[in-house]
Amino acid sequence: MLRKNRLYTPGPTQLLPAAQFAMAAANVHHRTADFRALYQRVLADLKVFVGTQNDVILMAASGTGAMEASVANLTSPGDRVLVLTAGKFGERWTALAKAYGCTIDEVSAPYGETFSLEAVRSALKPDTRVVFMQGTETSTGARHDVKGVAQLLKGTDTLLVVDAITGLGTTHFDVDAWGVDIIIGGSQKAVMIPPGLAFCAVSERAWKRMETSKQPKYYFDLRKERKSAAKGESAYTPATALIAALGAALDYIRESGKGDLAKGREVLVNNAELAAEMTRAGAEALGLKLFAPHAPAAAVSAILSPGGMDSSELVKRFRDEFGAVVANGQGEMKGKMIRIAHLGYYDYLDTIAIVAALEQIMAELQPEKVKFGNAVRAAQQVYAASRAEKRALVTA
Amino acid sequence: MLRKNRLYTPGPTQLLPAAQFAMAAANVHHRTADFRALYQRVLADLKVFVGTQNDVILMAASGTGAMEASVANLTSPGDRVLVLTAGKFGERWTALAKAYGCTIDEVSAPYGETFSLEAVRSALKPDTRVVFMQGTETSTGARHDVKGVAQLLKGTDTLLVVDAITGLGTTHFDVDAWGVDIIIGGSQKAVMIPPGLAFCAVSERAWKRMETSKQPKYYFDLRKERKSAAKGESAYTPATALIAALGAALDYIRESGKGDLAKGREVLVNNAELAAEMTRAGAEALGLKLFAPHAPAAAVSAILSPGGMDSSELVKRFRDEFGAVVANGQGEMKGKMIRIAHLGYYDYLDTIAIVAALEQIMAELQPEKVKFGNAVRAAQQVYAASRAEKRALVTA
Known about the structure:
Two copies of one chain form a homodimer. By secondary structure, the first copy, chain A, is of the alpha/beta class. Helix content of chain A is 45%, strand content 15%.
């Protein structure tokens, strides 16, 4: 059959057509009133999307750029920091903190798990300046307890920085109430546009901390960006077309919330939660194991390939047979799992179809084990139950 | 969940993104060398797509425009013509022939059926000047036997005109060998672009007949268009952006045939055949009846709504719940069926997903009758069998 190119990867994700068209149409110079109006609107909308009163900074960079900016702006060489790590992106915090000469404590959990809050509490020291963590560990499909960690830090001077690059739009965060000092997002995730933009919301405590930071920085100087943003500009040349795309995507999210962007964000999170639940049910009906069964993220489902099978073969079949791009495991997890994304622009038809395709592939590989329709049925039942629940809520 | 807007209607059909982008980029004047090059390339490609050595004429019109052009160019008032009709589009031929004062014979079959060749043979008279028919009756989902009718006309002076607006790209036609004098296509069908263009391939016999036609015509004067086309132009202002889109779509079809456009056309037809077979199997597994079970078209499947249920409710649920636009019945068939299209840009994921959505809707309407997964299983089995067959062919 024909094969449409479809991304089921946890970034880049499937593009929103309205954003693609806005991007194509963006023929604009960045030092003009037109662009300033767009930029200010996007920054204001991002605050609502993130769910914060804090200033949001937008930069032309991948998510890692904003992670680096957090380290470079909040620490000084020798500062003690605590990294919570349970996967490749946790390890990136450690690598960044090391690159900037921090003294690093670590709480780690095995890949696929999340760390215990007790272990975090024990690891916190009076001189811990910053805790770095993920909202969702994209490499394993596990979700971490941001709220729990934030509560441990209440009343201390320790800042909390959360890489929510795949967490935003897939988890309900209450950034300001919990006290998250920097929360980081990226364009190629739940906001449904191509890679190239990172953004972060920065608390007043974090702005204050930056005054004492002694790290070298220039492009990633957040205070410089804040000053420019106050004038409706970026410090350096902004990625204008991507920002136009982001504007269109935020409009779409607002429309999904019937004109209310904050409600649209909830819709997006609930959508990812349901798609993830459908996918997990489908995989389990096929007898497949989840890599992160105890704290599964809504951003991405990591599904272990059955005993001995190289998951690269599954990835290849999704691509060759169905045009669907799913992710392999990362690093040493490569070959052991596939990862199917739910963050952003996926609907019922996308979700049920990828479950059906997984079933079709597994039936060809293990015909004795698969009875067609069982995986899809499990996903359909999850969907039906969520419909029934919604109706019950409306009736009540 | 989120709802993507997806057309499963038998025209307009789902758009090819590459064609959308080509359309958006088409900033061109039509009396320039650039546009002439595009126009000539599209006309040449259309010949291959239709599968003919005959000249192809392209016009800014809906498919009905090319139907009218056929009547206006091939007949004179009072001419005896035979219309083969088994649905709303067959009836359109009668209406057109009547508008132009032809003497009309009809062979009709009930909606959902096709006419017998014996009846056609009996209805042909020595002075029948033209036979008008459909390749696929879009309103009922039935396929007519163009080859069989063409064979009845061999050795006579009777011309054959086929409305293949939904037939092209969903049925294997051998236009020149069979002796089809005019075959008509439209842009919003298997070529995956928006409405606005009609095209037709015209035989030498048909060009000759036009010399004697006494019908009034101006915009639809095919001989005038032929003269312009020879110079790489259209007689009147062409729909430039749609023609750019059509060029991109034909490129896509060529790529689907690994660089061979004729092979790409076969791929497209086989794709529609398989999608239609999967959909029919899914519907039947749900206990639903097909409206045209004896000669089902690959362009569109007409599925009867179960006893007493208004199909408008099904159409509405597809739209409201899943963002999927399926067609209702046309005219007096409205409320009795839904029609799901397979022509053009539909892949496995689109097909299995619409079957799953149909199952989800039916389970909500008739929970006692539907066991989740059965419809999808039936479609998956069709797909698996086609894969096995393909492997057997490769091995043999």
